[in-house]
Amino acid sequence: MTPALIAWSSGKDSAWALHEARREGRYDIVGALTTVNDAFGRVAMHGVREELLMAQLDAAGLAPVVVRIPYPCSNEIYERAMASAMQDAKARGIAHVIFGDLFLEDIRAYREAKLNDVGMTAVFPLWRRPTDTLAREMIAGGVEAHLATVDLKKLPADFAGRHFDRALIDDLPAGIDPCGENGEFHSFVSAGPMLSRKIAVRVGETVERDGFAYADLLAG
Question: What is the rounded average pLDDT of the residues 64-85?
């Protein structure tokens, strides 16, 4: 099989992309590429504690490939850090990165262009899957997740910390993507067919910062 990394956010889309890629059997997924905000010790955008990330990756059988960025972080600094990580991966014989993106053409084009710059290829196993069907397929397939981050321009703060389940999907306002592909929310997966065991998670306080509501997910 071809060695590859998976772009790992700790959320449901990257987790399901891992599940689909493993089922397909073309790639040997040797590590999970995750951007961590070094100032807070949390997954960038998702706000998930690094402790939970590491427990999740251990359960997924993935070696962590952590890209640490400062806060605040300019796009230039981010791109430099990612390019360095990709060059390191390429030097280890890895030429493919798997993403959980669903339908945003500009994001896909950006990823493809940046990987092409270092001679690597982006893979999108979930591309163009209808998101309402996909969300329900994940839930039926055993994915358990909490909403870790909510964009307050799109959803009320009380969605942060909720389980990603059928009731949540039914409660989403009109125009909100069931998978949050437009950035409406981000999640943390604690169980599913891509994990060897369930990760015990409890929901702490919700903090609002920079237009987002972050549910502090805690181990245990």
Answer: 96
